[in-house]
């Protein structure tokens, strides 16, 4: 059977630190050819003129919470993966703190089965560590999952790993990438009690970064890094939120050789504590959005390669849940549809180059997690591609938000850049705000 072909012509192709004008021929699931000029060999070839548009690899989001199973009143894999595709994110790694939690191989495989049926984007999952599931961790095939997730603070259920002996055993026992949420629970509890004694349940949300403080983050991050150095574990620290933490990371060697890496999330690059007055609990995240100075230092570390990856920590809740008083309002918010447009907005503001956005959102997650044949515009790679019009403004509003929860912290924001086409494994799955019915998503595989 003849494989279908798509020819993208006249694109500004962004890949590996360069932008060049050219054409791309997709055959079946893969990029067959990249050249200055390619001619359609037959009338069967679907030709797309990308004149004036930028072609990027599909973004890879290494940290999302799609809430399935068990929390599907907030979100599910089907709704949130569609939002991701509309936002130019073609692959995601989902977290284990669902209900039930993904802390056994059986529960992990159940999640893969759900994604195989319903996901619009390529998918993998983190396996969750607890104080008492080392035996299950050792059963996990490192080639079949993205990695291991440990909550060293701010966990749900029983996922807080706070036994130092267990933690050291886990670090010594696995060669999977260990991704960690770092906030020191004792520090947070002390700070919270002080504020609760003063305000009761209705603590001003502006106190959130004081409760979940710089010290809470730094104490936990520095301990995790110390343990990784002691044990030789491969450590990835999720969602840095403080300038102080950035000093714990290095840019002295290439990412592929690093044993200790770091990520920053879109909200920590976009918002600061000055935004709590207007946005309230809508920007209540763990770790907290902190000061403008912290944000500036995160940007500095991102651009000088101490921070390796930009992710979302997409974690939706219903608007009713978020409208509760401080102690009852959950932390987290939806981001996958708006992360890439937000970072391209930062390009327009002169904060970051498009090449750097692609490095941090496409290339580096692929390198860090050793994802097979994704994250680049390369011949022989899967055709996960995104076409972007950098000068086609649109405003985020209720009518165009695709998250199941129906709201966004970016509501009312106008982005200059618009994702016009998303290709997944060679299929055009999204074009000008419309989704195709084609099922193209695949389970991610890893070169380990």
Automatic annotation (TrEMBL):
Coiled-coil region(s): none
Residue ranges annotated for the Amidohydrolase-related domain, each copy included: 54-429
Keywords, ordered alphabetically: Hydrolase, Metal-binding
Transmembrane segments: none
PROSITE patterns per record: DIHYDROOROTASE_2 (PS00483)
GO terms of biological process kind: purine nucleobase catabolic process
Obligatory cofactor(s): Zn(2+)
Any GO MF annotation of the entry: allantoinase activity
E.C. number: 3.5.2.3
InterPro entries hit by this protein: Amidohydro-rel (IPR006680), DHOase/Allantoinase_Hydrolase (IPR050138), Dihydroorotase_CS (IPR002195), Metal-dep_hydrolase_composite (IPR011059), Metal_Hydrolase (IPR032466)
A GO term from the CC aspect: cytoplasm
SUPFAM superfamilies, per the entry: Composite domain of metallo-dependent hydrolases, Metallo-dependent hydrolases
PANTHER family in UniProt: ALLANTOINASE (PTHR43668:SF4)
Biological function: Catalyzes the reversible cyclization of carbamoyl aspartate to dihydroorotate.
Family from the record: Belongs to the metallo-dependent hydrolases superfamily. DHOase family. Class I DHOase subfamily.
Protein name: Dihydroorotase
Organism field: Aestuariibaculum marinum
Lineage, uppermost ranks: Bacteria, Pseudomonadati, Bacteroidota, Flavobacteriia, Flavobacteriales
């Amino acid at each position: 059977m003849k494989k279908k072909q798509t020819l993208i012509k006249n694109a500004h192709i962004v890949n590996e630190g360069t932008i060049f004008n050219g054409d791309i021929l997709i055959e079946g699931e893969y990029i067959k050819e990249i050249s200055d000029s390619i001619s359609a060999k037959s009338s069967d070839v679907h030709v797309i003129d990308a004149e004036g548009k930028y072609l990027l690899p599909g973004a890879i989001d290494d940290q999302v919470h799609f809430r399935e199973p068990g929390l599907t009143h907030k979100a599910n894999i089907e709704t949130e993966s569609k939002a991701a595709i509309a936002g130019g994110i073609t692959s995601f790694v989902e977290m284990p703190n669902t209900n039930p939690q993904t802390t056994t191989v059986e529960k992990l495989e159940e999640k893969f089965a759900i994604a195989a049926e319903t996901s619009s984007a390529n998918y993998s999952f983190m396996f969750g560590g607890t104080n008492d599931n080392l035996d299950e961790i050792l059963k996990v095939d490192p080639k079949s999952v993205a990695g291991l997730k440990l909550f060293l603070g701010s966990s749900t259920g029983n996922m807080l790993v706070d036994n130092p002996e267990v933690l050291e055993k886990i670090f010594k026992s696995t060669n999977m990438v260990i991704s960690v949420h770092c906030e020191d629970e004792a520090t947070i509890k002390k700070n919270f009690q002080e504020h609760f004694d003063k305000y009761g349940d209705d603590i001003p949300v502006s106190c959130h970064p004081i409760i979940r403080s710089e010290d809470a983050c730094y104490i936990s991050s520095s301990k995790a890094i110390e343990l990784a150095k002691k044990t030789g574990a491969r450590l990835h620290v999720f969602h840095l939120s403080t300038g102080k933490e950035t000093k714990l990371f290095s840019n002295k060697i290439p990412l592929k050789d690093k044993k200790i890496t770091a990520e920053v999330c879109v909200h920590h690059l976009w918002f600061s504590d000055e935004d709590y007055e207007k946005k309230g609990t809508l920007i209540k995240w763990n770790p907290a959005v902190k000061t403008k100075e912290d944000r500036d230092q995160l940007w500095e570390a991102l651009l000088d390669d101490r921070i390796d990856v930009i992710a979302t920590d997409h974690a939706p809740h219903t608007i009713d849940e978020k409208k509760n008083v401080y102690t009852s309002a959950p932390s987290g918010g939806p981001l996958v549809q708006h992360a890439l447009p937000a970072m391209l907005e930062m390009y327009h503001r002169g904060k970051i180059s498009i090449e750097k956005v692609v490095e941090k959102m496409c290339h580096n997650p692929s390198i860090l997690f050793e994802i097979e044949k994704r994250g680049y515009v390369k011949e022989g790679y899967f055709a996960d591609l995104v076409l972007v019009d950098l000068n086609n403004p649109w405003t985020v509003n209720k009518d165009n938000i695709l998250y199941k929860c129906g709201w966004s912290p970016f509501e009312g924001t106008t982005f200059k850049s618009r994702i016009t086409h998303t290709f997944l494994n060679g299929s055009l799955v999204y074009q000008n705000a419309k989704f195709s019915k084609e099922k193209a998503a695949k389970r991610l595989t890893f070169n380990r």
